[in-house]
Every structure is written in structure tokens, then in C-alpha cells.
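Following up on my earlier thread - several people asked me to post the actual chain instead of describing it. Fair enough. Here it is, all 117 residues.
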Amino acid sequence: MSGHVDKEYGFDRLFEAVVYFPEKVHAIVKEDPDIVFCENYAGETVLQFFSMEGRDDIVGLLLDMGARADEWAVYFACGPAHVSTVAILLAAGAEPDCEACSRELTAWGVPRKSESK
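Reply from S.P.:
Thanks for posting it. Predicted structure:
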């Protein structure tokens, strides 16, 4: 990545496009391919944010645009148990931290396998 002049601005620009103007996302990413790696004030990418929201449509779009499925996106999707989002990320090559995901699921009230009997 060549670096982005203002990563938070890039996050906001891409975030607004995927929410309000999805038809413009392709042009925005073509103009600035690194925008998919921009982060907000908390260090989250747009992909990670929408993974946490379980927005499979947006997650798929961002992956198609070159965003990387990473362990954090999977972790964020695990918390609220967005199973379909986790599946999309895993299919895109994400390598999750299984122990961290397990702790996150437990924190959200999803019982571990040994507790579900």
C-alpha cells in the first residue's frame, strides 16, 4: 500500500459511498485503490465495520473491490454471531484467531460446544 494522505477521510468517503451511493463505489475504488485499507479513528476498516454489522451485501462488495478478509473482520463478525458474514470472510481467505473468536462468541452469550448440552 502506498499510503493514504488522510486515512480517516478515506474511511468516511468509502463508508458513505457503500451506504448511500453503492453505484459509485467502483469508480471511487478505481480512482483510489488504497481507499479500501483506510481506517477510522478506532483503527477499523470499512470491511471490519460492516462485518460487525453483518452486512453481507457490503462485505461482498468490499471484497470484490480488493479489501482483504482478515482475522479482525472475522472476529468482529463472530461477536454478534453473524454466521453468514463469517462464512463469506472465510471463503475469501480470512484466517481467524479461533480462540479469540470463541471468547467473543461466549461474551455475546453463544454457548461453547461443551456447554450446549
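The chain has one domain: 7-108. That should answer part of your original question.
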